[in-house]
Amino acid sequence: MNSAPQIPLNFRRRTASEMLQRAEALAAEMSGRRSVREFSPDPLPAGVLDACIRMAGSAPSGAHQQPWTFVVVTEPDLKRQIRAAAEEEERLNYGGRMNEEWIDALRPFQTDANKEFLETAPALIILFRQAHGLDAEGNKIQHYYTNESIGIALGFLISALHQAGIASLTHTPSPLKFLEPLLSRPSNERAYMLLPVGYPSADCQVPDLERKALDEIRVDR
After folding, report:
1. What is the pLDDT of residues 148-192, one digit of tens each?
2. Residue 116: inside a domain, yes or no?
3. What residue numbers bound the domain in which 71 lies?
């Protein structure tokens, strides 16, 4: 059986105090991350999204097959088309596809079928899951653990964006199938998440939320 080439691990063992300091600093920084629906149209600096996507692409994946594609949309007319298609799906969702319990859960956040932020945000990042690979002749290559892999990559991306000073929103106008033909994606790709990204508007407000305490989410056995 062939094995992957091996190299020495680049890893530095830190002191206990340094570990705690770094972990607490990152936890404090990420606790300030919020989903944003009110964006400034100001463009982002060149290269920043590339760096964030490179970080997302460093996520672990099943058999290291990296089953993801990140499509960045900045062209105004294409953002307009995405908004129109997303709002059509959302009108169906709010108009009957979502049950009353779901609608009640969303009510405190005052969301509706209008998705102006899809045009206002300077960029949209659409994350596609590669259900399988394709070789040079177009034959299928089996991929493994694609949902798990792409979920990890999405987490990396959201963290990278926040660390870079970019606000984002995990927007899921389910179903997302309209994005595949609209963005001319190949047959093996499935739209997984749509993220408007940019600076918050000057008057942006977000719900005053509390997150679960550590003892509510950690269990020791």
Report:
1. 999 999 999 999 999 999 999 999 878 999 999 999 999 999 999
2. yes
3. 44-201
The verdict on pTM exceeding 0.85 is yes
What is the distance between the alpha carbons of residues 100 and 166, in angstroms, rounded to a whole number? 34
* Alpha helical stretches, state H, the chain: 16-31, 48-56, 76-92, 100-106, 117-120, 146-163, 179-182, 214-217
DSSP state of 59: S
Q: Is residue 12 part of a domain?
A: no
Q: How many domains does the chain have?
A: 1
- Alpha carbon distance 149, 169 (integer Å): 20
Q: Which of 115, 93, 105 is nearest to 169 (CA)?
A: 115
Map residue 34 onto helix, strand or coil. coil
